Amino acid sequence: MDLIAIDGLAGTGKSTLAKALAERLGLSHLDTGASFRMMAWVALTSNARLDSEADVLKATENISMSYEAGKCLVNGTDVTKRIRQESVSAAASKIAVHPLIRQRLLLWQRQWVANHGQCVVEGRDTASVVFPDASVKVYLEADSQVRASRRIEATTADLIERDARDMSRSSAPIRKVADAVVIDTSKMAISEVEDVVAGLWQSAIQDHKE
Ligand code: DC
Predict the structure, then answer these.
(1) Is 143 exposed, middle or buried (0-12, 13-18, 19+ CB in 10 A)?
(2) DSSP SS3 for 153
(3) Mean pLDDT over the full length of the chain
(4) What tens digit of pLDDT does each residue of 95-122 get?
(5) Smaller CB count within 10 Å for the chain: N or C?
(6) What's the gap between Cα 91 and its chain centre?
(7) Nearest 5°: phi and psi at 74?
(8) What are phi and psi of 107, to 5 degrees?
(9) Exposure of 142 in the CB half-sphere (CA atoms within 13 A)
C-alpha cells in the first residue's frame, strides 16, 4: 500500500515530520489525531459524557467531518484552531478508548486514504491497526521532557496522563509493530529524520516497481 504510516506519542514530532515529508515527496497528508479531535470537539460542545460510549456515539452520530490540507471542518464549520485547545486534547484521548468510536474513525480514515491516493498518515495506531499494509512504517520516540517542551499548551503532567491513557486502553493502544522503523527524535533535527524516512519511501517505491 503506497502510504507512509507514522505513529508516536504526543510531542515526538509526528506532525512536523508528516507535513515536511508530504511536501517534499508530493504526497497528501492525514493527521488522524485531528479526526479524534473533531469528534471530541462535537462531544464537548454537545455536553456528552465522555466516559459513556453511547453518549458520545449519539452526539456525533450524523456529523460530517472533512480534513483537507490541514483544514478541519465539522458540519461545514472551520474548527482547525479550536480543536487544538488543551481541553480538546484531553477529550480526544478520553473518547479514543471507546471501540465503536475507533471503528467509525478507522472507516473514515480508510475512506480518506482511498480518496486521496499516495499519502503520509500519522497517529497512534495507523501502522498497527488502520493501515497494516503501509509500505513504510515509522514509530517515533522522544524523552518525555523533550516532548513536553515541544507542546506549548501542555504541562508535563497533562502529557503523562494522556500518554498513560493512550498506552493502556484496551482498544488499539499505541504499539510499536515489528516491521516499523523506530526513530528517537530527542536529539535529532527534523531534517535528519525527514532524510531517513524519505530514503525508506524511495526504496519502497523502487521495490514496488521491480
Ligand atoms: O495526535 P493527537 O495529539 O492530535 O491525538 C489526540 C488524541 O487522539 C490522542 O491523545 C489519542 C487519540 N488518537 C488515537 O487514539 N489514535 C490515533 N491514531 C490518533 C489519535
Answers:
(1) middle
(2) coil
(3) 94
(4) 999 999 999 999 999 999 999 999 999 9
(5) C
(6) 15
(7) -120, 120
(8) -65, -40
(9) 24
Render pLDDT for 156-170 as a digit per residue (tens, 0 to 9): 888 888 888 988 999
Using one digit for the tens of pLDDT, what is the confidence trace for 116-153? Answer: 999 999 999 999 999 999 999 999 999 988 888 887 66
Other beta carbons less than 10 A from residue 146's beta carbon: 16
Cβ of 12 closer than 6 Å to ligand 1, yes or no, is: no
- The best mutation among 9, 30, 31, 32 to test binding of ligand 1, ranked by most ligand atoms within 8 Å of the C-beta, falls on 32
The position carrying cell 458540519 is 75
Nearest CA among 156, 154, 148, 143 for reference residue 188:
143
- What is the whole-number distance in angstroms between the Cα of residue 96 and the centre of ligand 1? 7
Cβ-Cβ contacts under 8 Å for 93 (sequence gap 6 or more) = 36, 162, 165, 166
Q: Cell 482511498 maps to which residue?
A: 114
Q: What residue has cell string 472533512? A: 66
State residue 152's pLDDT score.
66
